[in-house]
Specification:
single chain; about 350 residues; alpha+beta; 8 helices; 11 strands; globular
Length: about 350
């Protein structure tokens, strides 16, 4: 579901010399992960870092009337004014890199959340279906039919943590959230936002540690708290965008990225960037080069779960692969806007 864009978010960062000044997300990443390159799935969701200037202002505007966060000259970080409203009933957050988001119908649950049973329609309509496969298929020469479209609204970019933390994100506050974003409670947009919040509040399965993060800074904090600061961060990269299912062949160079410990972050459908991040110790990860029949090349990230015994028996993966929980490793390629963190 695409959340329509009505205005551009711009923000200038507070000077480094300012008291209590927060680092912009890009610099926060570098401060916490100095040896880790930022993958494309992250850079696509960020705003440029302006030159540092003393006594500058921070301004974030979302929609007609939007989310206005004032950090004026002399501001010492004592408070944040957030006003969300206006617009024409849409959910309005800054444009980032533009593309063609994939529509997934209301009522679908993310196949990357293991508690849910797949609906019959999801088996046919969910574009993520083609991403699931068996570990034994990850070898040179294997032909696979896959679709590597982005799976959620890629207009939804990261907000600075102070702004994101100022906006409610809870099922107890859902009416307030919808009101702030001028979303009608009975609309499809509202249902998608509710689904995302509900998925984030679902309890973890045994062996999983999870958190939904609403800013890049929070993602970095969660990942480093589970894996430390010496990590590799990767995402699937496609050199030629296409929105059709096509045949790919695995090229030479399949490489194991990590085993046992990993944090995977899945982008959710929401007005701004929200990721469902979870850590598992029963995971293998691979870098898989793919060549498409249309000439496209993909540097895909595949995640294999070696213990699926706690998953819902009617999970999408089991129905597609015709296997039972806990019997064989279940793998999936990561969509382009999802991330993998593994220890180096």
């Amino acid at each position: 579901m695409k959340f329509h864009i009505l205005s551009i978010i711009t923000f200038l960062m507070v000077a480094l010399v300012a008291t209590n000044a927060a680092l912009p997300p890009q610099l926060y990443w570098k401060s916490k992960l100095p040896t880790t390159s930022m993958p494309k799935a992250i850079t696509n969701l960020l705003h440029p870092v302006p030159d540092w200037k003393e006594e500058t202002a921070t301004s974030v505007d979302v929609g007609n009337g939007g989310v206005n966060v004032g950090v004026e000259k002399g501001y010492q970080g004592s408070g944040t004014d957030v006003n969300v409203g206006g617009g024409d009933g849409g959910v309005n957050v800054n444009t980032g890199p533009k593309g063609k988001p994939v529509h997934v119908g209301v009522g679908y649950y993310s196949p990357f959340v293991y508690n849910y049973a797949a609906r019959e329609t999801q088996l046919h309509d969910d574009p993520n279906v083609a991403l699931f496969l068996m570990e034994k298929e990850l070898h040179y020469g294997k032909k696979l039919n896959v679709k590597f479209s982005k799976t959620s609204n890629d207009d939804a970019t990261f907000l600075p943590r102070k702004v994101a933390d100022s906006i409610p994100f809870s099922s107890n506050k859902v009416n307030d959230i919808l009101s702030k974003f001028s979303v009608k409670p009975d609309s499809e947009k509202a249902q998608i936002m509710k689904n995302t919040i509900n998925e984030c509040e679902e309890p973890s399965i045994r062996g999983e540690e999870k958190r939904c993060v609403t800013s890049l800074e929070s993602m970095v904090d969660f990942s480093t708290s589970k894996l430390g600061n010496n990590v590799e961060a990767v995402s699937t990269e496609v050199n030629k965008e296409n929105d059709v299912l096509q045949q790919y062949t695995i090229a030479p160079g399949v490489k194991k990225l990590g085993e046992n410990k990993a944090v995977v972050c899945h982008k959710q459908s929401y007005p701004y960037a929200v990721f469902y991040c979870h850590k598992s110790e029963t995971t293998k990860a691979y870098s898989v080069p793919l060549e498409g029949v249309n000439g496209s090349r993909v540097k895909a990230v595949a995640v294999c779960h070696t213990d699926t015994s706690q998953w819902n028996p009617k999970h999408l993966a089991f129905q597609l692969l015709k296997v039972q929980p806990g019997t064989v490793p279940v793998c999936h390629f990561l969509p382009q806007d999802h991330l993998l963190f593994v220890p180096k």
